[in-house]
Amino acid sequence: MPEGNITAITLFGLVFTRDRRRITPDILNHELIHCRQQLELLYIPFFILYVLEWLVHLVKYRDWWKAYDAISFEKEAHANDTDHSYLAHRKPYNWLRYIGKLPKI
Length: 105
Ligand SMILES: [Zn+2]
Description:
The radius of gyration is 13 Å and the shape is globular. It has a two-stranded antiparallel sheet with strand order 1-2. 50% of the residues lie in helices and 8% in strands. It is mostly helical. The chain contains five helices and two strands. The chain has helices spanning 25-40, 44-61, 64-69, 72-80, 86-89, and strands at 8-11, 14-17. Residues 30, 34, 74, 77 line the site of zinc ion. Zinc ion (ZN) binds at residues 30, 34, 74, 77.
């Protein structure tokens, strides 16, 4: 997996980044969507599902980044990261709607 393509990562409600200057409002919103996903799954189940889904897509696509883009949690976050009011009207467990949908590549 090439380094530098991940600007931030969210773990247990905290957003980590190597360079705060690269955090745009859209990236922050993307990470806040992950915060909400993690919270509603009580964290550990989120990470288990995230990795399992990535592995399933890795077998299917045989490409790390395509597999990453196909994860339902990522698809929800990418689809809505420019909508800065998304979390105000988001339905709980909305990531379920993105399972099986084709990723935007
Ligand atoms: Zn993400």
